[in-house]
Specification:
about 575 residues, alpha/beta, 8-stranded parallel β-sheet, 6-stranded parallel β-sheet
């Protein structure tokens, strides 16, 4: 169809609306676009722009309706289908999202980020069509001659060199032309180090569940803590807890990156900590503008930023040994136990019965509670073989409706009765922790292993079998097991992983011994002592500041082990 022309007045409204949209003045932008659509209701480009605004305003149902209407009028617009896919996946309508991304790529194979988003949407519902070719395309994420792929999706390939190349590529494009001021470190008037934590996930989110207790226990005689929120306010208890845990909470969701960087500089932030990396909603441009004298990558992304303006990455000796520092643009800070904090005050609810959770009264329960996006066909095929090897066993999973149908179909095709897959509905975290203890063995994914979920399993004494590789993301569960005193559950190749899982399923006495070791508070004290962790990360921050105050360039920092400080709550 031909797009209806706009009058000079309408063209002026379009220009004004777009300029407001670029500046983040979303209400103003929407007002201008709606004025045009009152006169020209079938203009797909204006619908498209208004849909983009509504998506940013979290009015997703309205955005989807606008995208669909625009796509009906302009079906050959690849970017329109891509943006529709983003809207669908933002509300977990991943099957619809995958269809939209596939439509976009059919129209334009060079569409930036399209391959990664299609891979993610299909993996989320365990639709493994074209899984191998999509992974093969992601393997070229660092190649400037290929379409751009978000670095996050390279975590599904155990290749830290690729992860660095992909991250550098995205940073070069997004941060081109940003001029950073010279920002020397200076001592604060009260002698305290001013730390800012920046995240889009200060809400009901796994990263916040890990971080919030650290925010609460930071030593306020030495540190002033500010939270910069660049994401939506979900009004959850988790959000409110973060707000009350810091000295200053600043909502920067509507800021442009340069405005947030200026805010941090005006507050005299000494160390700005990025809790995002290359995850959804990040604003790496804030750091390109040098928002603080010291800038740190931490916790939210198990890989490198690829940015020269990020000074340090916080890790530990297992997930990031110094010999692998060449795969990171940052200097490495090694905490002696684990880089991952936790909230030891988080308590499970009352434990339910197997019947209440839809589990059989008898028989072995294998558990795979990782996000379904981490699950690949080869790993699931092995899990099905375990079921065939262990009569009466079941596999307990977290999955949405679309993923459930696909997984049942995979089981049927492999000769496993689909009813041996038990699906757990989503529950509040205390209830989820309580039911996890009913499982006999947690089966990890590879190469993107369990992170927060591994900590959840260990918290309730559930043994976990993991496999490690070369990348940071592949080693997190392994480190948590080591620190918990059960490093014998860590394997380093698929044959060993499969053999150990089967051996444990057939040896209830050995499994009971492992469980007893995990339930022994003394054996896992290092993992759940937040005061010990606080002392270690604060030692790292002080070392960073000492170098910055002396005018020295960032360098690797290895924090020495310290005695526990307190019982850990």
């Amino acid at each position: 169809m031909s797009i209806p022309p706009l009058s000079p007045d309408q063209t002026r409204l379009l220009h004004d609306g777009y300029q407001a949209q670029v500046r983040g003045l979303l209400d103003d932008a929407a007002r201008q676009y709606r004025k045009i659509l009152k006169k020209v209701p079938d203009h797909p480009d204006v619908m498209h722009l208004l849909a983009m605004v509504r998506s940013r305003q979290h009015r997703t149902d309205e955005a989807i309706g606008l995208y669909r209407a625009a796509a009906a009028l302009k079906p050959q617009d690849a970017k329109l289908w891509y943006n529709l896919g983003l809207a669908y996946t933002s509300v977990e309508r991943n099957t619809d999202g995958a269809e939209a991304f596939a439509r976009a790529l059919a129209l334009d194979r060079s569409l930036p980020e399209g391959v990664g988003m299609l891979f993610s949407a299909r993996r989320s519902v365990c639709d493994w069509r074209d899984d191998a070719p999509l992974l093969a395309a992601i393997a070229h994420a660092g190649d400037p001659a290929r379409p751009e792929i978000p670095p996050f999706f390279t975590l599904w390939l155990d290749d830290p060199a690729l992860q660095l190349a992909a991250a550098r590529r995205i940073v070069r494009r997004r941060c081109a032309g940003i001029v950073a001021p010279h920002l020397p470190a200076r001592a604060g008037a009260d002698g305290r180090v001013r730390i800012g934590y920046l995240s889009a996930d200060f809400r009901n989110h796994p990263t916040t569940h890990l971080l919030v207790r650290l925010l609460e226990v930071h030593d306020r005689s030495k540190f002033e803590i500010t939270a910069f929120s660049i994401g939506p306010n979900d009004a959850s208890p988790a959000r409110k807890r973060v707000e009350s845990s810091v000295d200053r909470f600043i909502d920067c969701e509507r800021d442009q990156p340069a405005e947030t960087a200026a805010r941090a500089r005006s507050l005299g932030i000494d160390i700005l900590v990025d809790v995002m990396g290359h995850t959804n909603g990040n604003r790496i441009e804030i750091f390109a503008g040098r928002a603080a004298p010291v800038q740190v990558s931490y916790l939210g992304y198990p890989g490198t930023s690829g940015a020269d303006f990020m000074d340090y990455v916080i890790a530990d000796p297992f997930v990031l040994p110094l010999e692998d520092a060449r795969f990171f643009s940052e200097k490495v800070v090694q905490l002696p136990d684990t880089y991952q904090p936790n909230d030891p005050s988080l308590a499970p609810a009352a434990r339910p019965s197997r019947t209440e959770c839809g589990l059989p009264d008898t028989g072995f329960v294998f558990c795979g509670f990782n996000n379904t996006r981490k699950l690949d066909p080869a790993t699931f095929a092995f899990w099905l073989r375990l079921l065939m090897e262990e009569p009466g066993s079941v596999l307990w999973l977290l999955a949405g409706e679309d993923a459930r149908a696909n997984l049942r179909r995979e089981a049927q095709a492999a000769g496993v009765a689909p009813d041996r897959l038990i699906f757990a509905p989503h529950r509040p975290l205390p209830e989820h922790l309580a039911r996890m203890a009913l499982a006999d063995l947690f089966l990890d994914t590879f190469p993107y292993t369990a992170h927060t979920t591994a900590l959840d399993a260990l918290r309730v004494g559930l043994p976990l079998v993991t496999r490690t590789g070369r990348s940071f993301a592949s080693k997190v569960a392994g480190r948590l097991l080591q620190v918990s005193g059960v490093g014998d559950l860590v394997t380093d190749h698929p044959g060993a992983y499969e053999a150990l899982a089967l051996a444990l399923a057939r040896d209830p006495e050995r499994l009971a011994v492992l469980r007893a070791r995990l339930e022994d508070g003394a054996a896992r004290a290092r993992l759940f002592d937040i005061q010990r962790y606080r002392a270690q990360i604060e030692a790292a921050y002080l070392a960073m500041m000492e170098r910055a105050m002396a005018g020295a360039a960032p360098d690797h920092i290895v924090v020495a082990p310290s005695p526990a400080e307190g019982a850990g709550a």
